[in-house]
Amino acid sequence: MGATKTDLFTKQQNDIAAMAKALAHPARIAILQYLVKKNACVCGDLVDELGLAQATTSQHLKELKIAGIIQGSIEGASVCYCINPKVWKQYRELFNAFFQDVDLKDKCC
Amino acid sequence: MGATKTDLFTKQQNDIAAMAKALAHPARIAILQYLVKKNACVCGDLVDELGLAQATTSQHLKELKIAGIIQGSIEGASVCYCINPKVWKQYRELFNAFFQDVDLKDKCC
DNA sequence: ATAGTTTATTGTATTATTGCAATATTACGA
DNA sequence: TCGTAATATTGCAATAATACAATAAACTAT
């Protein structure tokens, strides 16, 4: 077929995969890093910052917004984006839990 | 076009995105969780475990192997897979660094 | 009102991903 | 050697993601 069979997996597995997918493009990583660096609402700068077309940038912003990790607010003619701290922490905790030290054997295969 | 413009971004940004992409499917999350739970080389079980076709499972294993996060070794007629502890730690550290506490403002937008 | 600015949406082309059947490959055992 | 078992690969179809031009929508300023 071609569509992911989400019903075969647990909600947690689908959630982690969805979070990872939100991060699975360098432009979205760049956007998040920029917002974290500024640690403020950013209006407009992002298109110039990335080097991608305005439409493409807008699309990546939309995906990050759908994933919940950023939020936007209308500020006059422009729209300002910033990290959603609550969701950011959720991401951190989920990935932390996933990668938590499990005393992996050094010699395995 | 349709192809990711990797040249617009830093190596670090591309690396993080590539790692996230390796995790961006619930089947691959399930595989990793299973290998971590077993904390050993696993031979054969995975196809039954996942519920996907053998060919599909093999393909996901291949992607994880290319990403470096698992390794396989031939064990007679079957192939055994396990976590690559070194790369696992790299993933953990990179995501940790990315999500590190940055004292995000609670009230932003 | 009108022109300019900023962001979102739509349409379309291209590439990537997902999934499975069929086949190939490799190793083992009788 | 021949048949069986376990993985990998190939070929194909369907879906998703990436990118951008063109356009729309919403606000500003003159």
UniProtKB/TrEMBL annotation, chains A, B:
CDD domains referenced in this protein's UniProt entry, alphabetically: HTH_ARSR (cd00090)
The record's listing under Pfam families reads: HTH_5
Q: Which UniProt keywords apply?
A: DNA-binding, Transcription, Transcription regulation
Name one molecular function that GO assigns to this entry: DNA binding
Q: Name the InterPro entries for this protein.
A: ArsR-like_HTH, HTH_ArsR_DNA-bd_dom, HTH_MetalResp_TranReg, WH-like_DNA-bd_sf, WH_DNA-bd_sf
Domain named HTH arsR-type is located at 8-106
PANTHER family in the record: REGULATORY PROTEIN ARSR, TRANSCRIPTIONAL REGULATOR, ARSR FAMILY
Q: What is this protein called?
A: ArsR family transcriptional regulator
Organism (species):
Chitinophaga silvatica
